[in-house]
Structure formats: structure tokens, C-alpha cells
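User: Good morning. I'm curious how phenylalanine would be positioned relative to this chain. Could you predict the structure with it bound?
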Amino acid sequence: MVQRESWATRAGFILAAAGSAVGLGNVWRFPFLTAESGGAAFLVAYLLLVVGVGLPLVLAEFVIGRRSNRNVIGAFEALGRSNWRFIGGLGALAGFVILSYYSVVGGWVIQYIIASVTGAYTSDPAAYFESVSVGANAIAFDALFMAFVAGIVVLGVRNGLERAAKFMIPSVVVLLVLLAGYGATLEGAAEGYAFYLSPDVSTLFGDALALLPDAAGQAFFTLSLGMGVMVTYASYLGEDRSLLNDGLIILVVDTSIALLAGLAIFPFLFSQGVDPGTGGPGTVFVALGTAFAEFPAGRAVGTVFYVALFMAAVTSAFSILEVIVAYVTETFDVDRKPATAGVAVAIFLLGIPTAIDLRYLTAYDVLANQVLLIGGGLLLAVFVGWAYAAEGTEELRTGMRGGDALGAVWIWLLRVPIVLILLYVLYFGVLAT
Ligand code: PHE
Ligand code: NA
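Assistant: Good morning! Here's the predicted structure, ligand included:
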């Protein structure tokens, strides 16, 4: 078996896991989903799910990873629960699907960095999006994005993932704070905030249950849950320390960045009188491109924005690739280099349809979020809650002071409420599609 690596520092692990969480989901999905789905009402449902369902499942993944020190599929064998291996298999499958279209969007981001510098989208932002989002350009830049991500994964856990995350995640935070600060100075900022977050009283209670599938899908996606990223990352942990602590930090960073992204984006749009649009994969690019085209220093602001988005996307993308590469290197006798190259090419091929027709991209996104991630999370809750409760609790409490009551609450949440919520979400999420 291939020698396993570990994180060099605790900060490195936390930044890498936060880097996985912070991504296109925070900037490309969250603000528009929130604005469309009833503003503050959606936000409340989302926050409750992140804390009540997301955090317990992050901890469940951490526990499996740290205790097994193995990839997402091998972990179940190492824990003596080989029968549950299929959960890891589903997770790896979800990773294939997600990364295949995630890297297509990553390719758009690269094109928008270049276009912000050259001014390519200023004359007709909608037409520009059409020309880059599907077809030869989309495929070429998808490949470029994937090559960049694979280049980091090839370098390994410490020299690749940890080093990249340590540089990129703080940079993303700084750039987004600057952008949101700049947004606050614009005329129209207040209107933007109102559009983003004002509670739509009519939807607050009536549609609370209807909001649940979308809010849960986003909570899973944004925390990189249900597909083994957190299992894999925690499997590189050496020392014992409080997993709860790390989980909380990741949750706070991810949620803050999602909120921050909206606080930057909506003032930009409203200051230029740009219609935020009706959602869909192109909105953040077309609407923002329109705003940046009209700003005094719009192209400079746009460049900064898309560079931040690129770094956020890269740190998420390599976490997904790592899940599968870890499995391949530990299961078959292959080195990291050929494994990474092979997996990256396979995922790229799977993503080609989504770079040809956006309807595929939306379909992949829905399949991944409403079905695969939620299903993976559901199985994980059943596994840890019912089949691995005693050992799981012991592992959670390792490195934590006290924690008796906490462990009991955690198991109870996994056993019943989370299982019920996820069954509901899965049922209605599938019906809605
Ligand atoms: N959490 C990432 C984001 O918000 C997406 C992601 C999903 C990454 C699943 C890894 C696994 O963009
Ligand atoms: Na996220």
C-alpha cells in the first residue's frame, strides 16, 4: 500500500477543509438562491439546517476519517464495517458528477478573469456569456481548470493541498472583504441589501417546508457534505484534537463567506440598475458582467472578483479530486501521478455534455445536490447513528474535554431528526425534479 501522508499543521487541515467548503456554492449559488427563495426566510431555514444537520454530519465524516485513516471507501473496511462500503462508493460517484460540471464553471471563471482584463464582455455581456459558457471555449477552459487542479493534487497533501489552501483561502477572505466594503460605498447598496435579505413575510411560514429541499441541498453543497471530502481530509489527521472545534470554524468561515459574497454582489448590481435576473447558472456572470461593464473602475473590480472566485473554486475542486485519487492510490497499486491524471481525464470526459448544453449542467447540479449528496448524508447519519454509535462517540470525544452530553445529543440528532429531515428532503427534492 502507498505510504499515507498527513497534514503538516492543524491550521493547514482547517484551511484545506474550509477551502473545500468555500467555493462556487458560496458565490455562484447562494446569493441568488437566497434572493429568489424569499430572502431572509430562506436564510433562516438554511442556517438552521447548516447548524442542525450540517454540523453533525461534518462531525460524522470527521469521525470516520480520523478513526480509519483511510479513503472514503476503504474507511468502512478499516472500521470493520465492510457492509457499509457502498456509502463510500456513492460518495465517490457524487464526486465524479460534481467535479465534472464544477470544473466547467471553473473554466468560465478563468475566461471571465481574462475578459475583465481585456474588456471582452463590456459591449454585450449576455452574448459574451453565451460564447464562453458552451462549446469549444467552454471545453478548452474546463480542461485548463482541471489541469490546474490536477497539478495541485499531484503534489500531494502537504505540498499541494495544504500549501495552496494556506495561500488561497486567506486571499479569498481579504478580497471579498475589500469588495463588500467597496460595494457598501456605492449608491444603491441599501436597495441591494434589501433585495437580498429582506424577509418576505408572505413566504416566511407558509412556504417554510417548501423551502426545505433547496435550503438543504445548498447546506450540503456548501459544506462539501455527503461525498467523503471531510472523511478524506480528516483521514490525514495525525494528532488528537477537538473535531467539534474544527467543524465549528469551518462552518463559520463558510457561512460568513456566503453572506459576504451577497453583500458584495447585490450592491454592485443595484448601483448600476442591473436586474439580478431569475437565477440559473449564468446569472452571476451575465448580471455581474453587465454591472462591471458600467462601473467607473468596473474591469479592475471585476478582475479582483473573478480572481477571488477562481481561488475559491480551485480549493473546492481539488478536495473532490483528492477523494477519488486517495481511493485509487490506496486500492490499486498506482502512484499519485498516474492516478490523478487518469481520474482527472475521466471526470473531464463526463463533464463534456455540460459544456455543450447548459441543460445538462443544471441536470447534473440537481442530481448531485438533491439526490446524491442528500442520499449520501442520509446513509451516513444512519451508519454513525445506528451502526457505529459507541465507537463514533468515543472518537468524537477524543481530544475534547468533557463532551458526554454533547456526544449523546449528536447521536440522537443523527438517529432520528436528521434521518427524518433528509428523507423528507430526498422525497420532495426528487418529486420536484
Ligand atoms: N463546497 C463547495 C462549494 O460551496 C462545493 C463542493 C461540494 C465541494 C461537494 C466539494 C464537495 O462550492
Ligand atoms: Na461552500
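Residues 21-23, 25-26, 222, 254 surround sodium ion (ligand 2) (CB under 6 Å). The chain has a mean pLDDT of 91.
Let me know if you'd like a different ligand tried.
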